[in-house]
Model the fold of this input.
Amino acid sequence: MAASGAKYGIATSHFYWIGAIPAMVFVGIFMMPFYYGSRARSVPEYLRLRFDEKTRGLNAISFAIMTVFSSGISMYAMARLIQTLHILDVPFQRMSISSQWIFDVSILFSALVVLAYILLGGLSSAIYNEVLQFFLIVAGFLPLVWLGLKNVGGWHGLTEKLPRTYTHSWAGMTNPNTNPLGVEWFGLVMGLGFVLSFGYWCTDFLVVQRAMAADSMSAARRTPLIAAIPKMFFPFLVILPGLIAIALPTQLPPVASTAAVQLVPSTGEGLIPAKMDETGQPKLDKNGKPVLDYDLAIPNMLLHYFPTGILGLGLTALLASFMSGMAGNVTAFNTVWTYDIYQSYIRPNASDAHYLFMGRLATVFGIALSIMAAYVATRFNNILDMLQLVFAFVNAPLFATFLLGMFWKRATGHGAFSGLISGTAAAALHHGLTLSAGAVPGVKGGWLGSVLHVYPSEMAQNFWTAIWAWTTCFVVTILVSLVTKPRDERDLVGLVHSLTPRPSEENVPWFKRPAILGALVLAMTLLLNLVFW
Amino acid sequence: MGLDIRLPIGGLFTVLGLLLAGYGLVSEKALYERSLGINVNLEWGLVMLIFGVIMVVLGRRGAGKGETGRPQVTQQRPDSSHH
Done:
């Protein structure tokens, strides 16, 4: 996210303020009752209870593949970072091991750590770790923001050094050509704020996990609302370092105290170096300007400001942010594999002990597959882009299915299934027929031969792909549901809004009531948007 | 099950805080040129130490009362009754 902070400026905060908080409030107030009430153990299981077996199977299989690749991608990104920063170069020299092995050792070691704590503690250890990692990230990045801001002369100094659109989140949003994101406000609010963020947060496996782990309905509903509060302030922690990195005068990057090698030549901007090609020359774009490697914004800031001591803490925080993604995905994989694929299709009616054993086995296999995915990523650079694209195609329509499933009792299994398939197809079709400005047809779109529309930025293209997928799924689900046989209402109690008794809130003090908490969170978010207008 | 999450957080921050602040006390001044002359190890170490101790104290007090409200995690072994 600091990468986007440097690239797009404070507008990146939209990913939190529009792209997460409203959706989290919605989850807490409206969707948690169904997850908690239905006692579903996973998103696919809810789909089976509400719709039918085939909808669940489709979702379970695409989800299992997605989690393995996501954790592989986290692993790959972390190992790459360790390699680029030359953190392990000196220790490796001392042990006289060739530095070629750094990448492999990083991957293997992170895999073993995650394997150990998931096997020993299961789901609860994954959740504990995630909370610990969150605090660690705050502890590591907060002093960075403090030192950085002090250096550039506070927020005021920062606004003077950067163009206006970098420090005003809504500046130029009426026209895609006048803001750093290259999106107009409608695409931003509908694409990011509605389809993508609601799709992500409402069907996120971790949300369902927390519903399972909570000890009461109101605790389950409060969790996403309370989690929304740190999300509100997280932009300052991760976006500000990116902004400061770009505002600082360009200089020779500092050498890590443990590193013997110079990091990068000074062809970048601020603290952000240029991307290198295979021959060690900076990559240039069409206008002959170097392409900046925004991913190195935070690492370089850490090396710039932190002396030995706290530098270790900062790097730990950085690694923690990769690890937490990995563990969450692996626990998600083993649950979905064991319950939604193995127990349902491969071997039903086995003993609990057998499924427990299968779950453990799935953890080991999930991690092994992630390692494979990480190596596949090193071989084929484009495969990452392609996979993320496919995930987007599969995920975008899912929220339409959930929305109809939870709030429209007439929606049927056939409707949901055909909606999901056609939504995914619509996403692929839209992506294949459009292109973002300056991109070459291929992974970036336009692969269906003709280009019907050119978007000003890749982000605009992604947002609109999601909007198309969602709308198609929504319409197709309704049409197919209307011509297929509805389910008996008695089967839908606890699964559909109108057939579920309202949770009682009489004994809950006002500050613990989901609706009041939700309204408070939204009001604070609105205030933040106004301050950084 | 049901270890109070404040205890591991507090423990971790106390240990890290002590390490950082301790190193900040013995390290040379020249080290802090890059951090604008601020002994960031000592100062941030103290902040972490204070936070860690507060967490441990709150966690222990909560455990004493048998309170179960805060972000506490209990694992549920799913039953297979409806299969």
User: Anything to note?
Assistant: Helices of chain B lie at 6-26, 40-65. Residues 10 and 53 of chain B are 6 Å apart (CA to CA).
